[in-house]
Amino acid sequence: DPAAILARQRERESSARTYARTLPIVPVRAGGATVVGADGRSYLDCLSGAGTLALGHNHPDVVQAITAALSRGAPLHTLDLATPEKDAFTEELRACLPPGLGSDVKLHFCGPSGADAVEAAIKLAQTATGNQTMLAFTGGYHGMTAGALAVTGNVAVKNPLPATASVVRLPFPYPYRCPFGVGSPAGRAAGPDGAELSIRYIERLLDDPLGGVTDPAGLIVEVVQGEGGVVAAPDGWLRAIREITRRRGIPFILDEVQTGVGRTGRFWAAQHSGITPDILVMSKAIGGGLPMAVIAYRAELDVWTPGAHTGTFRGNQLAMVAGRATLRRVRQDGLDERAARLGSRLLAGLEDLARDRPYVGNVRGRGLMLGAELVDPTIEADAVGAHPADPRLAALVRAECLRRGLIIELGGRHGAVIRLLPPLIIGEEESERALAILADAADAAVR
Ligand code: PMP
């Protein structure tokens, strides 16, 4: 009885769990971009395991690879021993890595979650520099373990207590709502997205011995903030940050947990601006739907002593197998380019949708990582022309979408950004359908 399962699990789950509360469905089967609930209803899945399922649910390549590994009796878990499965995955992953990391690039299997890889990256940067303080960004999201939480910008809900690690947060450019308050003279000088002022601010901070951060351990940033509301860093800004860190010898950590594996229309989102990190953080789609997290870094950063960073679940065998199948398919079929093509059509569709709906304040995104920020147009706009965010409406839209068979996610500073993270294999007809449902649901929600 689906209703009983739902009620039981809701009651037993902690109140911190969000999906369990906001998506009242009991998935029992899934394929491609479709999830079927225990009630027999089909849902179009534009969340895809929080961006994990690049190939959608139960892609034949992934199913075949996992069943083959099980039937040949491959060991299920082997810590960090060398196995043929790990060898094959590593070969495939190396072929996908940005060449700028060097042919002697090192891999460190963490696991099982994205946050674990962030922890490893922070610790590696701290070990390499002998410094403590991390530089991170407003609106950033890196996970829920202590270090990852400390560099996460969502302090109101996720991080209400003082951070356990030393972190200084820097302003991330947010074109729709300039973080500097463009009403002020400094804000007006910041340009349309505050990017230039952000760079000057960071340089000043790193230079000032009186309370600045003259000895940072590393800098961590997302190319497109996902949980932060689908906010893409301007390419020029990213290049400037890369240059500052290079000049000053600050390890540059790029968190591509959500943006990696074709999501934004390039295999890595960093390719849009042509930058290469010192440490690349990967998870979600690289495990093909199974838990996997890896960092890749320049060989000269490999300063760890044996035993310095270990763990039981690093490099799960089935995740290697599913991950390899996924990476291969994304590369062979050019699913990153497909994401770029389909994504720009979806973005155009969202722009159309926003045109005669004043409560859709801003639509944005890259590839198949898309967002629409909902606002209250009855309240006066600020100096940048943005109305206040409307999280209540966003929650209503999500519920109306679900009623019409579409699963979406919310994010952003106020939870007012509708996010679409469909699998990269979503069909053209399916993506049109998602847009139509979204429009319909939005109209129903404002009524
Ligand atoms: N970094 C980014 C950019 C993410 O989007 C996420 C998860 N949404 C994480 C890190 C943390 O990953 P996990 O939830 O697997 O710990």
TrEMBL record:
It is an enzyme of class 2 (transferase). One of its GO terms (molecular function) is pyridoxal phosphate binding. Its cofactor is pyridoxal 5'-phosphate. Keywords: Aminotransferase, Pyridoxal phosphate, Transferase. The lineage of its organism: Bacteria, Bacillati, Actinomycetota, Actinomycetes, Frankiales. InterPro entries: Aminotrans_3, Aminotrans_3_PPA_site, Dat, PyrdxlP-dep_Trfase, PyrdxlP-dep_Trfase_major, PyrdxlP-dep_Trfase_small. This is Diaminobutyrate--2-oxoglutarate transaminase. Its EC number is 2.6.1.76. Pathway: Amine and polyamine biosynthesis; ectoine biosynthesis; L-ectoine from L-aspartate 4-semialdehyde: step 1/3.
